[in-house]
Write a structure and sequence with these properties.
The chain is α/β, with parallel strands linked by helices. It is about 40% helix and about 20% strand. The protein is built from 14 helices and 14 strands. Strand 6, helix 3 and strand 7 form a beta-alpha-beta unit.
Amino acid sequence: MPVSEEGFAPVPPATMPEEPRHTDFQLVRVKSTWCRIKKGEALSDCEDKITLSEAKIGECVSKSGISWTIEAPIYFCYKVVETFDILDPSNTTLLWGHITDPQQLEVATSSKKRLRRFIVIDEVVDELYGSKVRQYFEENDVQHKILALPTTEETKSMDLVLNILQEVQNFSIDRRTEPIIAIGGGVCLDIVGLAASLYRRRTPYIRVPTTLLSYVDASVGAKTGVNFLQCKNKLGGYTPPVASFLDRSFIQSIPRRHISNGLGEILKMALMKHKGLFDLLKSHGKYLLDTKFQSCSGSADHGDAALQTTRIAIETMLEELAPNLWEDDLDRLVDFGHLISPELEMRVLPSLMHGEAVNIDMAFMTYVAHARGLLSAGEKEQIIQCMQGLELPVWHGGCSWALIKTALRERLKHSGGQPRMPLPTGLGVADIFNDTSEETLERAYKLWVRDCKTALEEGPAAL
């Protein structure tokens, strides 16, 4: 059909108002097409299916032209699931546990299409559990590719992310129905999360933590990342997994030092917001180290301390993370222990593990809180003694006054020009402060070195 010349007639410029005119629009989909209607305007009668979006478009017409403001809420739903013996072939958690919608689950489980999974596993975990992982997928008739990699702070880089992405591309996954599975510690979960978030702009992934630290920390949040230019997690994003599956039986195979490492992050939550958790750690810390967080029968004196401790740690962490998943609010109690530790950890790598560096940071900040009058001498001593009971370092020679000042300057760069310093104001209660003077910090540092360096050299009795 010929097009008339009138169709190409120039459109006269719109008359711009003297005062800016604002109009808000809702977005409506009819059949397959989205269109905007003025907010509050009634939808026309239509037999076709209509979908109303939560997104909005604001339009402002002024002398200088038109501008649009888009509000598009981003919705995420992810599961954190306790399970046991996840590698038992009869346990279908790894196959279907990430699906939340009952109809989707029914469709998936009744499909005749063969399941496919791409798995990234830490190479140390692969040595311990690799045969069970392979047996699991073979017995469930799942076409799979297992990529074993060295996932350490030293290898936590974009190179490793690109290595994973090349293998994902070769395997050719369906980016909606075939989630990538990460099995390992926090570094492994962070790297795989970043790779999944980049592949086709967002591919679902599943976290299976195998260390205590990743069980209570990396597995329950949305952060992904890698180190860059000798800076910890300088590159990354906020893309939660579709699910994290928590199986404490993995923790029995890790060394005692790794248990202490995880206890550092648990203690952080105890000090910030849960005195009951602090009391649990004080009373049962050695027992948890000795039993490697396994639930033991015949231990009535301890109840199920492992279950109580991990559940409280995760619940308190989720309380802080869920309302602020993208860190729009930079005032975060979960940053306790993370003001100095990133600089310290990377500076002395690999001599300190993450939870150890966090604990050294927390030990110093405990002295800062005491110097400010927020903690009594008795409370300060209880905290330091609890740390020692959990076999965590409370001082390190690499944590110099110069390093602390450098770390706090770096903190200002990514926290809106304020230190936003979480400090305990008692046992299990805390607040965030922006007014700690350098004189107070230096005074706290000298007392901390005097007490905790001596304690390291002479033993806990020195405190």
